[in-house]
Structure formats: structure tokens, C-alpha cells
Write a structure and sequence with these properties.
Layout: H1 2-7, H2 11-24, H3 29-41, H4 45-58, H5 63-75, H6 79-92, H7 94-110
Helix pairs in contact: 2-3, 3-4, 3-5, 4-5, 5-6, 5-7, 6-7
Length: 111
């Protein structure tokens, strides 16, 4: 259900539903991954960081969660974590690695 709310752009509602799903099944990586998406889209960087970190811990091969973790880390000032996620993405999903690199480059220019 959370993914449906995300597709409708209802990120706050998606986050609410996904948090309930996580309470019911805290070992389901996809729920954390979707929560990270909802948080990134609503610019809830601390929420995105927590959700994406857990999603990656549960499923290290989830490239979208690694991208969201890198993005949230960058937005919360943890450039080292963003770089770690970029390096992991280079090994698994080059297009997502390039997206994260572009965000990192833009962030550097903004400083």
C-alpha cells in the first residue's frame, strides 16, 4: 500500500503506512526501502537516512536504497557515507552511482 501512495505523490501517507508495516514485520527490507523513498521525496533527510540505512543492512544488494542512503547522508552532512555508497553503487548499478556522483558534485559546487 505504501508504494501506491508513493506513486500518487502522497509521501506523508506512504510514510505513515510503511511505518505501520515495519512495526508488523521489522525484518522486511522492502518496507524500509520504500520508507526511504517516501522520506527522500518529502525531504525528510533524517528519516530517509534511518530507513535507507536499515534497508541496506537487511539487503546490501538494494541499489535504490544505497542511492537513497547516499543522498540522505549527503543532505545531512555525512559526505564520507555518501562516498561509501557511491563506491558500492559503482560495483552494482552504474546509473545510480552516476546519479549520486552528480549530487555530490553539485553539493561541492554549492559550498
Amino acid at each position: 500500500m505504501g508504494a501506491i501512495y508513493i506513486s500518487q505523490g502522497r509521501y506523508d501517507r506512504a510514510a505513515e503506512v510503511l511505518r505501520k508495516a515495519i512495526e508488523a514485520d521489522p525484518a522486511r527490507a522492502a518496507s524500509y526501502g520504500n520508507l526511504a523513498v517516501a522520506c527522500v521525496q518529502s525531504k525528510d533527510w533524517p528519516g530517509a537516512l534511518d530507513a535507507a540505512r536499515t534497508a541496506v543492512k537487511l539487503n546490501g544488494n538494494d541499489a535504490e536504497s544505497r542511492l537513497n542512503l547516499g543522498t540522505a547522508a549527503l543532505r545531512t552532512g555525512d559526505r564520507a557515507e555518501a562516498l561509501r555508497q557511491h563506491e558500492a553503487l559503482l560495483r552494482m548499478d552504474r546509473p545510480r552511482a552516476e546519479r549520486l556522483k552528480a549530487l555530490m558534485d553539485a553539493d561541492t559546487k554549492a559550498e
